[in-house]
Amino acid sequence: MTYFIGGLGLSSVATRGRVLPQSGIQIPLGTTNLDSFISGFPTGSEFRFLAGTYRLQNIGTLTARTGDIYHGTTSGSTLLTTLSGAQLLTGWTPDGSGHWFVTGVTVENPTGNPASCSTLAGNFDPDYPNCIHPEDLFMDDVVKLHVSTLPEVVPGTWYFDYAANTVYVGDDPTGMVVELSAVQSLYTPLSSAQTVTLADLIVEKFATPQDSGAVNMGYSPFGGYFWVTEGCEVRYNHGSGVACDAETTVRNCYIHHNMRFGLNGAGWNNIVEGNEIAFNNYMKMFNPYDGAGGSKWVFSTDMIIRGNYSHDNWGPGLWTDINNIRILYEDNLVEDNHMAGIFHEISYECEIVNNTLRRNGITSAAFPFYPSDGGIQVYDSRNVEVHGNLLEQNYQEIACLSDARDGTVGIDGPWELTGLNVHGNTVVNTTVPAGGGRSGAETTHPVTQWNNNTYTLGSAIPERWYYNSIGYQQAGWQGIGFDTTSSITFV
Question: Among residues 172, 164, 212, 152, which one has the least CA distance to residue 188?
Fold first, then answer.
């Protein structure tokens, strides 16, 4: 497995370019109506956006058609085409009080749920109540903090007087490219089209509602299946970068610096593979306990999450939460996420195999001695097998829990931590302080198997395991039947 490891720019997706040859019907940069242009060609055509930036506020969202392919222009391995959901703001005037303003800005999208914003005292800095507004302002690609009143505007912040159609900023915009996200999504919503492909494009700065994706792939209730997003860079969108629906594939993309999630969605037979998912919720706009970070899928069936590199997200790295069944996490590299690395929650059958998880939960470490912020985390989920994984220096390691939702009936029976099978994993934890570095199951339910694992642990903290509200050192843990055939070394 080859992982795509890079920094913040296009160099990190260099090997993802040239998914498609430089062919197809060329969409001119001066196009004024995207749908009108595309409708002049047969369904199932291949279209190529030219090098440059297309602003969808000027040309309209893309109404996908069955069988169509939409791809960008590349130079070698570099992506040269940007589809932007932002409008340019020009004509700034200083107000004499340290602010600059522009009038006539008529963008206003529906607001979201304030409970999702980062406003929990003591846990988030800064509080961000304006995450409910999907409009974000960028100055030379740097997002600014959206404040609620004009007196709050200082350098690094901005304010939108929606009633007066006026935007204020606290930084001198002279000589800068100032953009305001305006369009909600790339595709026209609720599409019934099938077998749609998007490739080799940069998709950025959409005013995506907090539970939606800038790349909104199909709509299964209307039959919109078999969509593919491949080789794209998806960044700086307000809600999620990419939203999966049924029978969709997201492959070899760089999905980063989106305000809430890199990916989210639901459906069946989805494949997410070979992507780099990084620095999402980086502004800490959204409460990661409510939902934010690298990814979150709900109500998904027969899903494959394979070979991704998920790192530095403010929240979990890879997350399936509520009524997911038959999920495979395989060959993922998951590092340095604020909370759990891989998290399977109030769901059903799942296999977590051959993943590498490092340093997840370290920046949170919110609840010492509690099974959270783990490399692998399983809550209230039946028939989960965790095997063949390498876990190194996560805040907690394999952290499993029955909480107040235990016994609640979901779509396939009760949510409960039964059928848990943990074997053949390698755990290295020598640096995490007391209260962390533990593995176990906080539950009254029996564990099917916890054995044949290999541990290298720091000797300063001997109590490394827990079961049913009791912490254990090695002898006690093995005395209740766990890890009796495992290798345990203290250093």
Answer: 212
Q: Return d(Cα 321, Cα 183) in angstroms, integer.
A: 28
DSSP 3-state of 479:
helix
Instruction: With respect to residue 102, please indicate whether it lies within any of the assigned structural domains.
Output: yes
Going from the first residue of the chain to its last (491 residues), give the mean pLDDT of each consecutive group of 10, the final group possibly shorter: 28 48 90 96 97 95 96 93 98 97 95 80 60 96 95 97 97 98 96 97 97 95 96 98 97 97 97 98 91 97 98 97 98 98 98 98 87 96 98 97 94 96 98 92 93 96 93 96 97 95
DSSP one-letter string for 288-348: HHHH-EEEEEEEEEEEEEES-EEES-SS-SEEEESS-EEEEEES-EEES-SS-SEEEES--
Beta bridge partners of 264: 243, 296
Q: How far apart are CA 27 and CA 320, in angstroms?
A: 38
Contact between residue 249 and residue 242 where contact means Cβ atoms under 8 Å apart? no
- Considering just the CA atoms, what is the radius of gyration of the chain in Å? 24
Contact between 258 and 240 under an 8 Å Cβ cutoff? The reply is: yes
Eight-class DSSP state of 192: -
- Within this chain, do residues 355 and 474 fall inside the same structural domain, yes or no? yes
Cα pseudo-dihedral 62, 67, 73, 76, rounded to 10: 150
463 and 342 in a common domain: yes
pTM (predicted TM-score):
0.94
Tell which residue, 338, 205, 202, 316, has the closest CA to residue 263: 316
Residue 93's domain spans which residues? 87-181
Q: Which residues contact 310 (CB under 8 A, 6 or more apart)?
A: 262, 276, 277, 278, 294, 295, 317, 318, 332, 333, 334, 335, 337, 341
Question: Last residue of a domain, which of 124, 152, 181?
Answer: 181
Taking the CA atoms of 111, 113, 115 and 116 in sequence, report the sign of the dihedral they define: negative
* 155 and 11 within one domain: no
Q: Are 381 and 471 found together in one domain? A: yes
Q: Which two tokens stand for residue 95?
A: 């107000």
In angstroms, the CA 80 to CA 64 distance is 22
- Give the Cα separation of 215 and 228 in Å (integer): 10
Q: Among 181, 214, 248, which residue terminates a domain?
A: 181
DSSP string, 55-122: EHHHH--B---TT-EEE--EETTEE-EEEE-EEE----EE-SSS-EEEE-----PPP--GGGBS--TT
Residue owning tokens 């004009």: 150
